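Q: Hi! First time doing this. I have a protein sequence and I read that you can turn it into a structure. Is that right? Here it is:
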Amino acid sequence: MPLPLAPLLPLAVRLGLVASTTWAVSRWVRSATYPGRTDQRAEDALDDLGEGLSLHRPADRAEDRQTNATARLRRVIRFRGRTYEVDAGLMARLRLREREE
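A: Yes, that's right. Below is the predicted 3D structure, encoded as structure tokens:
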């Protein structure tokens, strides 16, 4: 006995419409958003980080009690015959200032 496919037609049309609308909106959003940029100075600073964790207060910023933190992890991982290099760097700044009310 053949299956009645006519009752499934409205569902298929709705799903197709939702899928095509989602695809069109995602293409529009991707083309309308700013792709960003890479700041070479920041890339060079991250490349110059030493491995490990560092926390220090620069002597020239003592008046605003600025504290800088850096961290870098470099590892080579071998998994299932493939080799991956992990290079993660982090730079952070915390500045506490007392304000006059």
